[in-house]
Structure formats: C-alpha cells, structure tokens
Amino acid sequence: MASVVKCLGTMAIGSFIGAAGSAYYLQKKMDKAALAVASAHAKDGKIPIGGQTKDGKMWDGSITVDEFKKQLDSKTKKISLIRGAMGSLGATLIAAITLLMRGKVKVK
Length: 108
Description:
Elements: H1 2-41, E1 46-52, E2 58-64, H2 65-101
Antiparallel strand pairs: 1-2
C-alpha cells in the first residue's frame, strides 16, 4: 500500500510542477505580447480604458503601464496554480485508475 501512495504522490507532485510551469511559461509569453501592445497604445505612460456601467452610462479612465503589468502578473500566477491543480488532479486520477485496473490496489 505504501508503494501505491508513493506512486500517486509522485504523479501528483510531478504533474503539478509540469502543468503549472508550462502554464506559467505560456501565459508569460502572451502577457509580454499584450504588454507590448498596451505600451504602444499608452499616452504619457497611461493606457486609456473605459466601459459601460450596469445602468448604461459610459465611463472613461486610464491605467498606468506598471499597474497593468501587476494585474497581468497576478492573473498569470492564479492561472498557473489553477492549471497546475487541474493537471495534478487529472494525472493522479489516471494513475489511480491504472493501478486499480492492474490489481495493485484491492478494494474491500
């Protein structure tokens, strides 16, 4: 039983690192491209933004390039953790089913 736990633990840790690392790497590349576009549109170091409120009124605003970069970094970290957890869960589930089918785990 200890070898089953070690196997599942190894799969969970390895797949978390792999999924989170690859998600972080790919998201950073996309963030770099988005930051380049935002910097090109920035006027006086601020990116113009705006939108519509729930009651239908339009609003204008701006955000600094540094603040936009901080928001992208925060989003990248959150996405990486979520994708890492989902990848870890999937790989561990597949490993558990494989061990169960091979008869390494006895269900009582």
